[in-house]
Amino acid sequence: MKLRTKICLVCVAAMLILSQSFSLFMLHLSQKDQLERISKYEYSIFENKVKSLRQYVEGSFDVLSTSGDMKQRIMKDGSKYYLGMEYAVYQDGQEIFNLTPYEYEDTGAESRDTFTEISLDGKYLLIMGRELSLALGEDYDIWHYKDVTDVYNNSRKMFFNGLVAAFLLTGLIAVILVFVIRLVMKPIYNLKESADEIAGGNYGSRIQVKRRDEIGEISENFNRMAGKVEEHIKELADTNERQLQLMGSLAHELKTPMTAIIGYSDILLKMRLSQEEKEKALLYIGSESRRLSRLSAKMLELTGLYKDGEKTIEKKTVHIKTMLETVDSLMTFRLKEKGLSLVITLSDEDLCHVMDEDLITSLLMNLLDNACKASREGGRIEIEAWEKGISVKDEGIGIPEEEISKIEEAFYMVDKSRARASGGSGLGLSLCKKIAELHKARLVIESRYGKGTKVSLFWEEDNG
């Protein structure tokens, strides 16, 4: 059952109960008042008739020397003349006169000098007894009844008429109440609709607040709650996205260093090397393994799974030439796969810069890995370092102009089939952008389709 139906039924029931209770109370008071007025009137009439009867009987007794039978005859004639149809006269329990359809018994003081209300044969009667003592020592009991059934019938009729009127009026009020409740509860229906939309996944649903009462306050609170729910859902979605990105990032970042480690381990297993060459290979394997350990921890923070990512960014002054030589050695096997040559150019042999060496190395290896994928066999890749930045340039297939603005998005790939075939995940440049941001640097991409691509990392003045 809907709320508005419940409210309407409760209100209608309450109105009926209260109105009929009040009606019964008022009818009871009215009936009581009528009976009291009838009692007073009948009592007055009774007194006058008894007084007239007394005068008649005592006068007749004075004139005539009468026997007992004559006295009863005089009383009977006087009662018939002065009392009438609603009276009865008894002497010592013997009926002298009675034109009523009832017989009377003396019930004591409560039946005398006041009306007693009784119900008999479906009728309602007022009964009163009165003792008549004559001067000659004769005592009589006079009874009077008044049929007040019409008073009760009228009360019932008024009650049932009022009940019919109450039902009709309540029905009219119920119709009006339905429209009023619907109007008043419209914001609640809007709340329900918005709640259903949110439950269905539309977390941006909001209620238009037009009222400044309690319902308006509830609507505003609901909107705030919906906003918080939307924020939490977005946070959960972002966390899930970052988790996916983390898995892809780790796989992406592990691939190139693992290629170098596998390559050096294969050389150690399959080729005869001098002691110096063995030590050099083992040093590379150890160095790259440690770098992978550090890099995996930093990838967690770069993907946003931890909020204190910048705390683990360990910046120090790095000799650029040494770092690029390390990158060259790590990419050796990757370059040999396609017969590519790597040319490194420095503006100054002693060029240094403040950075996190692990992350910048990862950035350069990502750029070189992308360059390898884009380059044709036997092609050339150039790394240039100068005071304000580092760039990686290839002579590969290039990027269409309309795609350049999108390639920094996570999981975005210009040519998905080619990228998947070469093991790409669309995460490389997204990570490079994040690393650049952590160093307060800019990543600039220049490309001409069919001619090649150049990606430059420009240092900012205050990145240290």
Structure explained in plain terms:
The chain is α+β, with helices and mostly antiparallel strands and 464 residues long. The chain folds into 3 domains: 169 residues, Beta-Lactamase, CATH 3.30.450; 42 residues, no CATH class; 152 residues, Histidine kinase-like ATPase, C-terminal domain (Heat Shock Protein 90), CATH 3.30.565. Helix content is 57%, strand content 16%. It is built from 11 helices and 12 strands. Strands 2-1-5-4-3 form a 5-stranded antiparallel sheet, covered by helices on one side. It is rod-shaped and about 175 Å long.
Mean pLDDT: 80
What is the helix fraction of residues, given as a range?
Answer: 55-70%
CATH-scheme architecture of the largest domain: 2-Layer Sandwich
Radius of gyration: 57 Å
Beta-strand content estimate: 15-25%
Which secondary-structure class do the elements indicate?
alpha+beta
The total domain count is 3
- The CA-CA distance between the termini, in Å, is 69 Å
The third-level CATH topology of the largest domain is Beta-Lactamase
Largest sheet: 5 strands, antiparallel
Q: Largest beta sheet: what is the strand line-up?
A: 2-1-5-4-3
Please trace the helix and strand order, writing H or E for each element.
HHEEEEEHHHHEHHEEHEEHHEE
Tally of helical segments: 11
Q: List how many beta strands DSSP finds.
A: 12
User: What is the CATH class name of the largest domain?
Assistant: Alpha Beta
- Low-pLDDT runs of 5+ residues are 305-310, 410-426
